[in-house]
Amino acid sequence: MDTLTQALLGGAVGFVVAGKTSPRKAVLWGAAIAILPDLDVFIPYDNDLAATTNHRSWSHSWLIQSLLAPLLAWLLYRFDKTVQFKQWWLLVWFALITHSGLDALTVYGTQLFWPFMPSPYSGGSVFIIDLFYTLPLLLGFIAIVLRPNTLTSQLTIKTGLTLSCIYLAWGLLAQNWVADNAKRDLAAQHIKTEKILVTATPFNTLLWRILVVDDDVYYEGFRSVFDGSGPITFTQYKRNSPELINALQDSDTLQRLSWFSNGFYSVSQLDNSIIATDLRMGLEPIYFFRYHIAQSEHHQINAIAPMRIRSEQHAKQGITWTWQRIWDPTAQFEPLQ
Predict the structure, then answer these.
(1) Which residues, 6+ apart, have CB-to-CB distance to 310 below 8 Å?
(2) Strand, helix or coil at 236?
(3) Worst-scoring range by mean pLDDT, 98-102, 124-128, 165-169, 236-240?
């Protein structure tokens, strides 16, 4: 999730742990500790793909966080003994692990058990920015900072945390409901499925994107909770060229992307450029993470350091279409060039 939301969640967790001792101090320290994992974005890496796939790795590992929590708690206790060491320890630990747990519910991918290396956890049940989740936490945070000792403020932050948790639960339930619908409709339409992924679309949990990958093709479909009982329409796209895959079978870059995306990627050729795309984040034809990974020259494929290709020019159109599609199943996304 975005850094502001993570800080607000950390503040709410801090209040639960140490709010009786010092409400304002608890939320402020909880917020500060909760943003620490995201400081890994400032670490330089050799190339764009390395930067993408190493974000949310060691700094988001529950194992590393559990080891660091008592050390950070000891430092804070040395600084301020008005809060007990045990409270500092719990505050730090919960602020860190809830950060990673929330990130794991998004589709990006979080390495919860680094240095062990299964594919990152990418739940997809909530988008990385969602005001419906953030706003209740924000109201509670502001209330405690401004008037920390009033019953109204304490009720506001408790209610905000409860509502935000209910919203996450709703997202998981809606995601499972859409997944069941998608599997039913895929079977009815005789579409072969190797992998299926259901993710929340930007800023909401009302419209869901369904991504299905097979060997050489992938399918994209959408389901709104207001669509009714009609079948989901899936559109087929070319995924991989066998020739390109054979030429890149020993590519460390492609293997890394396959691991990071859990197999939800495509490879294509644009003029002489070989492009690898993480299909999980975005919608056809707009994807947030596309990489120029190789160059075709004189009938040979030559690997290069992966460089990210930006696609922000269609972001506003995509957001507008998302809002239209929530209410209208006939809405078509046709980005202007």
Answers:
(1) none
(2) strand
(3) 236-240
